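Sample intake sheet
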Amino acid sequence: MAYASVYGAAMACDVAHVFGVLGTRLVVQLGNCGALADEMVTGDLFSASEARCGDGASQYYAPGETIVSASLDPRE
């Protein structure tokens, strides 16, 4: 298991790829993001269940996907 705290999809992919090549079975990456919602105020916390692939790196790892879902099972 490896832990990494990075920002940006390209940096996150780079770290996960290197750990994968080294044989790491699970990579946990934490980060942050923002949300736009009228009912949210500064300081509110949320947990995203889906993410929109709008960066430059996702197309190489999940071609054709525009939205990916989170999983509590690290094997998925």
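Comment: The two ends are 15 Å apart (CA to CA). The longest strand covers residues 2-5.
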